[in-house]
Amino acid sequence: MTSISAAVPTGPGAESDAELAVRAALAGAVVVREMYGTALRRIDKSGGDFATSADLAAERAILDVLRAARPDDAVTGEEGGATGAAGARRRWLVDPLCGTLNYAVRNMLVAVNVALRADGATTAAASADPFNDEVFWTDGVRARVRRDGVDEELSPSPSSALVDVNLDPPFPHAPEFRAVDLLAAPGFAARFRPRVVSSTLAVAWVAAGRRAAYVTDGGTGLRDSVHFAAGIALCEAAGCVVTGIDGGPVHTGAGGLIAAADRETHAALLALAGKATPDARPTEDPASSVR
């Protein structure tokens, strides 16, 4: 796979897009960690959603890193919105604090997500865990986790039988399917154990073998989402099976997401979701993403 990072200077000592994603995510993680437990200002959004002063400060720290290193790139931040040309070939997607509600009530299950979309592909991504001093990252080919400056290959595994299910609205497939109904399905309880992390940290955990799968109902265009782009890229580079809730490509069709450690787990969840029809299969062999 040829990296589109060749669009930026690549001379001796030049920082790759993947390393930049890691550095930017870690800059945000430092802010998130330092502001944890402090008096946070709350900024209300639509639909009952909100951000905190930590979200804003972490996003500023991330953008400072990205803009200093890649001043010509476009950026979309969860809090600040889009900057740069609308049709830019290179656009960074930034979610400075995924799991804001967890964070606001002093729950440490959060992630800092940074991803680069270049010519329709995610060519670099990082998802940092501020409280475990870990950053999961990919250059679009390999997927690794960095601890104390040491990288380790990610290895998906279904052995835990733990499946994270996002229960937040919207529910675009109701009444035929709602993620909350999956938890009550007899076949689900017989095979899997549900978890609700309420952060896309759980998507990175699928790539790392710490979760068997992750399921969310809502949303379309998740590859271009500040919340999901990094986690999807990590799972694909690690060799997971990643599709929409209907079993089709994650970037088209019905939307939603099933990210599973292996084909068997994915097939079981697809069946439980009532989507296991002949036309509800990945159009590409997920194994082809194993590098």
What can you tell me about this protein's structure?
- The chain has 291 residues and is an alpha+beta fold.
- It has helices at 17-35, 53-69, 100-104, 179-182, 186-191, 201-208, 229-238, 263-272, and strands at residues 42-44, 50-52, 74-77, 81-83, 90-98, 111-118, 121-129, 134-138, 143-147, 150-153, 162-166, 193-195, 213-216, 241-243, 257-260.
- It has an eight-stranded mixed sheet. A five-stranded mixed sheet has the order 12-11-13-15-14, with helices on both faces. The chain has a two-stranded antiparallel sheet with strand order 1-2.
- α1 (17-35) packs antiparallel against α2 (53-69) and α6 runs parallel beside α7.
- It is globular, with a radius of gyration of 18 Å.
- It starts with 16 loop residues before the first helix and ends in a 19-residue tail after the last helix.
Summarize the structure.
The protein is built from 8 helices and 15 strands.
Give the topology, please:
Blueprint: H1 17-35, E1 42-44, E2 50-52, H2 53-69, E3 74-77, E4 81-83, E5 90-98, H3 100-104, E6 111-118, E7 121-129, E8 134-138, E9 143-147, E10 150-153, E11 162-166, H4 179-182, H5 186-191, E12 193-195, H6 201-208, E13 213-216, H7 229-238, E14 241-243, E15 257-260, H8 263-272
Parallel strand pairs: 3-5, 11-12, 11-13
Antiparallel strand pairs: 1-2, 3-4, 5-6, 6-7, 7-8, 8-9, 9-10, 13-15, 14-15
